[in-house]
Write the structure tokens for this entry.
Amino acid sequence: MARDLAIDLGTANTLVYARSEGIVLAEPSVIALNENNREVLAMGSDAWNMIGRTPAHIVAHRPLRKGAITDFDITQRMVRLILKRAGVSRFNKPRVVICVPSAITPVERRAVTEACRRAGASDAQLIEQPLAAAIGANLPISEAFGSMVVDIGGGTTEIAVMSLGGVVYANSLRVAGDAMDAAIISYMRKQYNLLVGEASAEKIKKEIGTAMPTSGNTYLMKGRDIRSGTPKEISLKEEDTSEALKPILNQIL
């Protein structure tokens, strides 16, 4: 018998939940292809580790940017691999519900459902991310008063007020975790003449990223000096990440 699945197809990470089993897959939303023959070489964590470390003909793609599908074909192939890893086969076609940003266009909605059906789902339904987040957080959204959610993902920040089981007001900003990583990269370049990649910027964000520095934590960061081209090591403070992230947080506020 086919399992019912829920997929959070995020810009940065993809989660798959199976009914009565819990989360059965959690991987970065990345797929690595051989550009010469379009062969899939890796997906998820394996593909993420290839970013910036591969020959020219091997490219790690992130097919979702800022909450939207930028490459339908690659997204479809990634979803097919995700469903395969979750145990879906030709004889086991599940019903699937997919989380999408509230500001997604009708064209993008059709693209997501079509990608899931072509990948092996018997049926695909969409649910808005703020509503799914509110249900997951056990907010009383069916009551006759407002519940607010601010869901900061990789590509989008979803802001919604819900009441009586529906969304009263929603706004989707295409500024979120990825923009924070980019802000850290830019800050490191300007402040320390240090060149760091996406993976390093995300590590900085997770380790000492903060809106208000309070604990005095530091993080030893290695990169390449822009002027000399040689390896360079610096000790970052919480004040650095606070300054780097301020413009992004102000947009969300």
Observations:
- Helices lie at 45-48, 72-85, 106-118, 129-136, 177-192, 198-208, 238-252.
- The mean pLDDT is 86.
- The longest strand covers residues 166-173.
- The first helix runs from residue 45 to 48.
